[in-house]
Amino acid sequence: MNEAMKAYVASNNKYSQEAPLNQIFNSLRGASDPKDSIGIESSMTYLAETLNVNLENAEMFVALEAVRAPSIGQITRQGFMEGWSSKGIDANIKAHAVYIRDYTNLLSRDPGYFKTVYRYAFVVGKEPDQKSLSLENATIYWNMLFGTPGWQWKTANYDWLSLWVEYLNEHYPRPVNKDMWNQTLEFARKAVEDETLSFWNEDGAWPSVIDGFVAWFYEKFGDPRGKAKEGDDEESD
């Protein structure tokens, strides 16, 4: 199918879904909700009861990303319409629920999709007028995202998420900005690939909070890079 045909099909799909999606959105509005958005009570009812989404794990962020919610307590008509019409699925509750189940199952297996949901969690999780997350909220969201059914930030010897949160609470009790949020995932990926943290060095481009965490980790558990070097030296003697 050439690009022109794809665009034509996508356009037709968008318009064919407009009426049923509008109808669904209207059915979600509570008496106190404005015409083009639903508030926290209606939003949570839609997620938890209509779609049967678990609001205590990463599945909540899968659903919020799907409907392009601007915040956890709000879903707009525009985001709802554009989000669902872009998925290429039928415009009904059953299809939407299946989509969320299927994509939730991808979180632990598809690094690219997990990154999309992870980054969206920062956008949707912060207060609209704020540029950062409180450490308390960031910790809640990290536990949701890095726990089942999300991607596990653990290795054979370390529960990295627990260590990260312990360090932040003791040494960095500050708000979490976007760069720190994003870099945490990049660091987490590398830590799972190499639990000795040999990828890190003092001259790297990591945020200072991650530099501090690595120093704290080595002080707490010892520097396995040094042990590995000692072993190599002994073998060469």
From TrEMBL:
InterPro entries found in the cross-reference section: DCN-prot, DCN1-like_PONY, PONY_dom
Coiled coil: none
Domain (DCUN1): residue spans on this chain: 16-218
Entry-linked Gene3D superfamilies: Cullin, PONY binding domain, EF-hand
Single GO MF descriptor: ubiquitin conjugating enzyme binding
Pfam families (UniProt xref): Cullin_binding
Origin superkingdom: Eukaryota
GO biological process: one example: protein neddylation
GO CC, alphabetical: ubiquitin ligase complex
Function: Neddylation of cullins play an essential role in the regulation of SCF-type complexes activity.
Name the record gives this protein: Defective in cullin neddylation protein
Species per Swiss-Prot/TrEMBL record: Ceratocystis fimbriata f. sp. platani
